[in-house]
What does this fold into?
Amino acid sequence: MEQSKPKPSTLRTDVPSSQHTDVKAFPIHDDAHDAFMTLPRYTLTREVIITSDELLQQKERSSMNMMEKGSPNHRSQSSTSHAGHGLDETESPERPALQRRLVGNTWRRLRQWVRSNTFAPSWLPARLRHPALGYLAAVMLGVIAVALTVLLKVVMPAFSLLGVLVILGVVVVALNWGGSPSLLATLVSTALLSYAAFSPRFSWSIASVEEAVSVGLVLVVGMHISLVVGRAARRSKARQEAEMQARVLRETQTQMETFLAMAGHELKTPLTYIKLSLQSMRRRLEKLVRTSSQTPEEFSQKVTPMLQEFAHTDQQVALVERLVNDMLDVSRIRAGRLDLHYEFADLGMIVGQAVNEQRQVAPRRTLLLQLPEAQPVPVYADADRLAQVVTNYLTNALKYSPVEQPVLVGLDVVGHQVRVWVRDQGPGLPPEEQARIWECFHRVQGIEAQSGNGVGLGLGLHICRIIIEHHQGQVGVESAPGQGSTFWFALPLAPMRQV
It folds into this structure.
């Protein structure tokens, strides 16, 4: 009668499967199972078995080390203790990401260097100025240089300067297409020279140390030329492009000035006719009001809106006339034909008249004037041009400041100079814009007109600066964002007896 074999049982550990995925249950016999259960309690890890007593001792030692060292590297101690018991060290998850980042940065810098050191010569036709043609030319010139070197070696066996034509080809590529194609020409030419020119020919092996030194010297010299000559060629190319852009800008400015002069002259005549016609129609309408047989109140109610429309139209015509005059002044300044009629005048009277005119134009605005008491301010200047400057300062202050805020105008005499200033409560100017606002056609971005008409060409302040400089004076602005602006100009005083 056959003896029945014991059924195999399965040993299961208390280790969770999510933590030890490679620990598997395995079948053993009952006898072995009973013997195994009599052993001390064990804890299973990935590849070894460690008793619970040993684990407790390890924890006590690690806690004592942490208390002794203050701020230990827990990761390094843990890995060291596990390594002592035969555990595998796992690679930090940050290391592959760091390696990928380093490779990406290196590749990005390499592409940037290749792009900045690759260009096309200006003597090529426009359809052939492609950067890829530079690399094609580099390979072709390298092949031609090596072929000529082999031919010279066959014709003249004593010819020893095998790398001269290669270096010459590298220089040609560097000067015309940049350092990156010339570096490719260096590598291709050196490889072909080693393969075809040195013995044994048509083999990558080098027979002597002298030939190895020659190949290395050609490679080093070619790479050095690629870097140095390529950098010089890139600078020369950038300088040529800058000169071309400057020439195009000058031509554009010349054409724009010509257009402004022509447009100003063409607009001046019809604008003058429109202005005179409006004035004539307004005078006739006022005369009709005076001579009408109807009741003055009834007729006035009908005519007053028409007179207001005439006044508004007259203001718009004056604005257009100012723009046209600015264009003509800019064209005259560019051509050096700005007419100035100098005479002795009282600057206080000029400023007062300009303020009164703006009070009539903008009756709802408050303009405060501060002048020296009972003292003329003599200057030798063009009175009309100075009035133009003061009017421009005032119109800008009224345009960019709130309606309820006043505009202050003052005149100060300091030593042998007189200073006229206009202060507003507008949005103010950032420091970087305070020098640029005097440039031609420059307008500050982000600052909108708060009252009046915001139409402008950015010419007024530029014309003011030129006019004051022709009077041996200076202009300036004191401003801060949110604190308003104070525009000023200073002129030398004239002798008092000349006024």
User: Anything to note?
Assistant: The CA atoms of residues 37 and 275 lie 117 Å apart. Residues 9-84 form one domain. The chain has four domains: 9-84, 126-254, 260-335, 343-498.
